[in-house]
Design goal:
By secondary structure, this protein is mainly alpha-helical. It has 12 helices and 2 strands; from the N terminus they run ααααββαααααααα. Strands 1-2 form a two-stranded antiparallel ribbon. The radius of gyration is 20 Å and the shape is elongated.
């Protein structure tokens, strides 16, 4: 069976409301019914997602909690539907997801959605508050690199705490040359 035939089979009987919901949620790696409701603003989205998880193979429950994910084969197809939405709607969905994720102490995911919505300052605020604490106070060094890669350079250079956390992480990871480059960027701010 070809991939297209399998996708067609998985999605063919999907109710238009379910199709719309899953398309809107397709940008989430994992989700909860509450996140679905907050992201979409649809009052019945949480129950709708729970029903889909119980009755279809499109939504898969993860172990240990209320977290779900979309089936890998259909996620890309549904993501194309998300990409076809008007830009303002996509941005609002990302903003809604970012707000929920930030409120539930998931700053990396929140920053990702804030950036996708074009809210660069907010994404950097999330990074600055959470990453500095994670790296400098709690020693979670592996968190720095994805944050640094996610942020636009101009915004990152305007936030020395992020650069310090990144340099510290790189230095402890024996990546001295890269750490030195970040320190040089911090020093250049003072000139």
């Amino acid at each position: 069976v070809e991939r297209g035939q399998l996708l067609s089979h998985l999605l063919r009987d999907l109710d238009p409301d379910d199709d719309r919901l899953l398309g809107q949620l397709s940008v989430l790696e994992v989700m909860t019914p509450e996140l679905a409701a907050a992201m979409t603003g649809a009052p019945g989205a949480a129950d709708q997602l729970r029903r889909l998880a119980a009755q279809t193979s499109l939504v898969i429950a993860l172990e240990g909690g209320d977290w779900l994910r979309l089936h890998a084969l259909v996620r890309d197809e549904l993501r194309q539907r998300f990409d076809a939405l008007p830009e303002a709607q996509r941005d609002q969905l990302h903003r809604n997801a970012a707000r929920w994720l930030a409120a539930h102490d998931l700053p990396a995911q929140a920053a990702h959605h804030a950036l996708a919505a074009g809210d660069i300052d907010w994404a950097c605020d999330l990074a600055e508050r959470k990453l500095y604490d994670s790296v400098m106070r709690q020693g979670r060094l592996t968190e720095a690199a994805p944050w640094l890669d996610m942020m636009p350079r101009q915004q990152l250079d305007a936030r020395p705490q992020l650069l310090i956390a990144g340099a510290w992480c790189l230095a402890l990871g024996e990546r001295h040359h890269e750490a030195g480059q970040l320190i040089d960027r911090i020093r250049a701010r003072g000139k």
